[in-house]
Amino acid sequence: MKGLIKNRQAIICILKDKLRVFAADHGVIAVSLLRRLAVVGPRLLYLNLLMMEHRFEHNGPHARRLTALVKKRLPECIEALPKLIGPNPHTFNDNTTYLRAITLRAPRWEGGQVRRGVLLIKFTETFRFFYHNIDIARLMRYFHIVLEPSWSGYCLPEILLWARFPEPIVVQASEPLDRQFLSDLGANLIPTEIGASDWVDHRVFHPLGGEKTFDVIYVANLTPMKRVNVYLRAVSELVRLRPGFRAALVVSSFGGNEQEFAQLLRWYGIGSQLTVLMNQTQSQLNDIINKSRVSILLSRKEGSNKTLFESMFAGTPVILLRNNIGVNKDYINEHTGRLTDESQLVSTILEFVDGRIRTTPREWAIENISAERSTQKLEKVLRDVGMADPAVDAPLFVKMNTPEATYKDADVARRMPNIADVLRNFAASSHFSQAEIDERLQTLFDPVPQSSLDRQALPPDPDVSIL
Q: How sure is the predictor about 112, in pLDDT bands with cuts at 50, 70 and 90?
């Protein structure tokens, strides 16, 4: 009893995880019932419940029926955006924390007419900032838009707000359910399978050789969705089966209860067999991944996770839960790792530890999901929907997530204008005329540096999904 009291936060954490799993699997039933009852209630409540039900629903046929309802109600959703999105938490300023965007191709002027560039906007919360602070319609006179959401489950006002515009907008969607939703919605939102995982800097994450110090590694944070308790439980069982088993856990303190985490460590009693590392740099993370036999992800739902793919580029195979939503499962294959059920997690880890699974993750990743390859795929999407013409448009600049969006080419990064200076021209509070914006942007982007993407360096027409 004293042990239970001493570790009560750990026990509560474990119980909460079980409740979250149950809610994820069955909560849609309750939300669906509430949504049906809300038909006769306030419109805003109904729309919120409809979008929530869609995000909960993992069943294909029912999800499509919900998509049909969202499509029918889309004009109402757009009309209700001010209340669905909520108040403005930030105002426009030079703090690029809320301007998480990057210019992939600069606009240029020919005969007094502008040929639009390409602007990629990262993170779902950034879309909210743009809604409140940027004149998006004016911005789209100068840029085609590419969105890189941060979370799976795209039936969100922050994403639907972009359906207000007639021009096509490309949306990265690594999760097939999200691609299907955007395709069935029939709006201007063009889904593609590229996600945040497709922009790893292979120069940072690369093989180092050397000894494998750890049998398994999990890179996470202390938020509940990362389910660190499941990892600790698996490691405790592996230590029991193999007394010499060694595990690594790399965590940031973001979003977590460190006292709860300390109690979990004590509860599972794995002591010296687990090495816990906090807040590692990208270089340090590459080093620790290189020392590990396999890298895992235990969340059931999130965005296009980067750590698994950083592991691939480092030459370390990966394990992903089969019922995960958010990660592109086509990337987890015989070359890169394994999909597994949570009940088989321990035995799957042991297959890698015992050398029974042979993989070539870096080779596959370089060929299929390198930043250069992803840039080429994105160019094809833009061409296919009429947003680019290779005969007259310069290649896109190659960007990487490190974790923020940065240019691969350091010279391009030095010569491109600060994104705050670009977006200041489109601040909702500004009063620049179109002629003034033309002049200011031409000054900012003159001269335009050359892209580091060589269209001839990669095979043409990559196999990329555009639903």
A: confident
